[in-house]
Specification:
Elements: E1 4-15, E2 18-29, E3 33-37, H1 44-52, E4 59-64, E5 67-68, E6 79-83, H2 94-104, H3 109-122, H4 138-150, E7 156-160, H5 168-185, E8 188-193, H6 196-202, E9 205-210, E10 213-218, H7 220-225, H8 230-235, E11 240-248, E12 251-254, E13 257-260, E14 270-276, E15 282-284, E16 291-300, E17 305-311, E18 314-320, E19 329-333, E20 340-343
Parallel strand pairs: 3-8, 3-9, 6-7, 7-8
Antiparallel strand pairs: 1-2, 1-4, 4-5, 9-10, 11-12, 11-14, 12-13, 14-20, 15-19, 16-17, 16-19, 17-18
Helix pairs in contact: 2-3, 2-4, 3-4
Amino acid sequence: MTDNIISLQGISKTYEDNTVLDGLNLDIKKNEFLTLLGPSGCGKTTTLKIIAGFEYADDGKVLFENKDMNNIPPYERAVNTVFQKYALFPHMNIYENIAFGLKIKKMPKDEIDKKVKEMLKLVALEGFEKRSVDSLSGGQQQRIAIARALVNEPKVLLLDEPLGALDLKLRQEMQTELKKIQQKLGITFIFVTHDQEEALTMSDTIVVMNKGKIQQMGTPEDIYNEPENAFVARFIGESNIFDGIMHDDYKVEFCGKNFDCVDKGFNKDENIDVVIRPEDIKMTAASEGMLIGIVTSVVFKGVHYEIEVDENGRKWIIHNTQSAKVGEELGMDIYPEDIHIMKKVSE
């Protein structure tokens, strides 16, 4: 028995001459919080629409609990969608908004009442039944939109950049709330965003997409600490990326120096990309560093300083709780486990 609730098999979609999805294969597990992450135009929202039934694939299959859904209309799929524009009904109060789908199903009034109250409690808006939509803040409207989607008891909740219209503080609060709701209900959430912080904060699994293809899929920790290519490394967090040569197992050359590393399995003298995260660079005295550069910029970021260093014409970014002075010579040390080697691939 598979743990997958949705399987996308060879999904392709083209609009005129623009290929939006190119043979996409993706398995989504039951009770998983999965995030589709990538830049605008990468195909993540189209993927969501195909799962929902709002769009149909040109090729491939959409399986829901092993059943082919290709020709099943949206209202017959056990999914509901929350959009960035909440699409609440302004002429209805909060109770009526949440109850709308249940009334369409002709559910008994006492059962509707019970379910609406359960949803209001879930989204921490008890007592708001008679309030108008216009009286709510953006965050409260978002919660009502989620309650309206969940009251129908979907097996999968689709969320298309639902936090994009909120300010930073409210967006961060809602990230936490959404994860709590998903864990409490134990249903599958599929979340679309271009915001790496949202993806890292909430997800069990992140799917990084670019140009209609999956670049990498894994836990937030795997995606951040072990990016599979330069696109993922650049898109998830800041990275220092340099050309290198893998001379042998555990031996790499970049920036004109030879370093020990922890990677193996590459061809001898293979051209590769080297990724080093800014927080993994150790600042030292120039006389003691593996590499030496000149500080060109220092910006205070709150929890750390962002320090730019010019090392023989190569730009380095360092994140450190200690500051530095523009113009000073600085040494940089990098431990073997902080050097990540990636195969070169075309982006």
